[in-house]
Amino acid sequence: MREVSPGDIVFSFVATRMHAIGIAQSFCYECPRPDEFGAIGQQWDEIGWRVDVRFKTERHPMRPKDHMATLAPRLPDRYSPLQQNGNGLQQVYLTELPFELAEELARLMGRPILDLVRGHRVAETLPETGSPNAIAIWEAELTRRIETDPSLDNTVRQTLINARRGQGLFRERVMAREKYCRVTKVDRPTHLRASHCKPWRDCVTNEERLDGENGLFLTPSIDHLFDRGFISFQDDGELVVSPVAHAQSLNKMGVPTDQRLNVGRFTDRQRYFLNFHREHVLLQRS
User: Fold this and answer.
1) Which one Pfam family would you cite for this protein (predicted)?
2) What's the distance, Cα to Cα, between the start and end of the chain in Å?
3) Measured CA angle at 123 (ends 122, 124), to 5 deg
4) How many Å is the Cα radius of gyration of the chain?
């Protein structure tokens, strides 16, 4: 999931047939398990990964099992979506397809799909429309729970809600530890945002939401890149650039992508939160 990029082609294989072709509309992002799943997937974690995909249902779904003479030689040795007999693999939820296999599946599904996979037809993509809305809904629900929690007084409630926006007590605590943007070196507080390393929505306790060592002071453009997982930092201060990031855009925003950048040392507690950021926020690509 964390290796998907906007514009990637997604084949939907359900009940032995290719029922739809989709185009990824967003990068991967965290999201709660949908309520409509019901009892399905109860063993899954409450928080998982989501990618917004625009699907087009096929009027005549193709059955790969009927074409294994041409498909079988193109199956990868590892993480194959199909068995040699054409049946799907239960343990594979999402896997990358070799181009040769994707091309043959597309050929069997029809010329429009083949042109799309070969890049002869431009895919209509949305500018990550689903991602911000889904996260906003999630955070709004968490805010509602805080607002209705009888164990919290009004001051604490407002303090926690302000922390979501990087304001109030959280900002003050970050300011006590961070004096400037680690990347751009801007040091005027007016131009800096207090950004969570472990996102506010992911914090297990309210103490984590207000912990000053769970934050960095960043200029707005760097805050955007850090919040969306296009950059992160190693424990020793080395800047990490996501492989899916657009290098030219990052360069224009003051993030060097063609040279190493060390932003300085972090405390043990900061390293703890940055580890979460690298594991769960930073976008990946194989």
Assistant:
1) HNH_2
2) 11
3) 120
4) 22
CA atoms within 13 Å, Cβ hemisphere of 194: 27
User: Are 185 and 222 a contacting pair, CB within 8 Å?
Assistant: no
Whether this model's pTM surpasses 0.90 = no
Encode pLDDT of 172-216 as tens digits.
999 999 999 999 999 999 999 999 999 999 999 999 999 999 999
**For residue range 206-251, what is the model confidence (pLDDT) as tens digits?**
999 999 999 999 999 999 999 989 999 999 999 999 988 989 999 9
The partner residues of 30 in beta bridges, in order of sequence, read 49
Number of residues in the chain: 286
Separation between Cα atoms, residue 191 and residue 196, nearest integer Å: 16
**3 state SS of 80:** coil
Helix (H) or strand (E) holding 160: helix 154-164
